[in-house]
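user: can you give me the structure for this one chain? tokens are fine.
assistant: on it. calling the predictor now.
[tool input]
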Amino acid sequence: MAVKVVLLDIEGTVCPISFVKDVLYPFSLKALPDILESQWDKPEFAQYREAFPAEYSSSKESLEAHFRELVTKDIKASYVKNLQGYLWKRGYDSGELKAPVFADVAPKLRSWHDKGLKIMIYSSGSVAAQKLFFSCTDAEPSDLTPLISDWFDTVNAGLKTETSSYETITGKHPEFPAGEWLFLSDNVREVDAAIAAGLQSYVVQRPGNAELPAGVRERLRVVASFDLLDDDLRIQQ
């Protein structure tokens, strides 16, 4: 069946898996103390502070300690992700942060977009953080958001390893049957969930990604670059 929609994971698929944990997470931990001092009572910051459980939002110290614990343990609570997005925006706006994308990504996104394919994003990071990422990449031009039609995260779609999440996503675009979607991710469980929902799905194996479990290459299509998808998409269009 023809591919009409390309649904993309971010971490380990369009950018090095190390970027989030080695750059973004440490940046948020480093930036938070100054933000708490300067923004604690500001209306703009209130929505982020008040989203934390009451026992942690009563003081700067308790909020910072709780935030640090959850980030260190990589616990993806929505209120933590939203605060991270706020902190990252300040980093992107100041030029301290730039999102690294693999060399094949920007040219392929433009090519797919020009051919009429819809490009959508599905990441465990918040939609706000996704938009920041794609608006401040190290590609030229830097802003890739005009190429992207829709954005999904664990709030508006669900967990990425659950089949129902992909059914939710495709259900929001009923003009495209599930079989016309191609989901690309480095996570085998996510790929399996997407396939169970009727999508086409491939595993993306980038430099720095974990080794794939035994047997994956025998039962799933594995690609190392978006450039290797040209024949698939050309045949199926």
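assistant: here you go. The two ends are 8 Å apart (CA to CA). The domain at 19-94 is CATH 1.10.720.60 (Transcription Termination Factor Rho, Rna-binding Domain; Chain A, Domain 1).
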